[in-house]
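User: I'm new to structure prediction. If I give you an amino acid sequence, what do you actually give back? Let's try with this one:
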Amino acid sequence: MNPITVYTRLLEAWNDRNAQAFAALFAEGGVAIGFDGSEMRGRAAMIAELTRIFESHQTATYVAIVREVRDLSSAAVVRALAGMVPRGKKELNPATNALQSVVLAAKPGGGFEIVLFQNTPAALHENAALREQYAAELTAVIKSGQRVRVPDAAGAVGTTA
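Assistant: Good question. You get back a string of structure tokens that encode the predicted 3D arrangement of the chain. For your 161 residues, that looks like this:
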């Protein structure tokens, strides 16, 4: 799988509330840093914690716009703007918008696996205009019926994953 496919499947696993599928995308010692700063280290910890979360919370679903993909030869970095739609709703909750960074390593047999996923709140306390811009961009993705918008070959945001 290429880095964008891995990132897209990560969000799909969360949206499907599938702890096993989420963890399977990570290297054995991979780390996921959540919106609240919590850390999950390793697949077993991810499965345990996400199973607990999914059983006890009605988690929102992700929508995202990939901003950048950097190919680093045997590694890659995906950066994205992400937002969340509360379960049972159709509109974005701008308070949960985040900037996501994913570091992926090439697997020996081909494809990539995640070594680090970081989900940073996009609170932008001093920049209301950018907060509104982010919300508008993510709302446009939702209205288009997409979940993840990825850059086209020219690097512009355009196609769906």
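You can read the tokens as a compact description of the fold. Here is one thing that stands out. The two ends are 12 Å apart (CA to CA).
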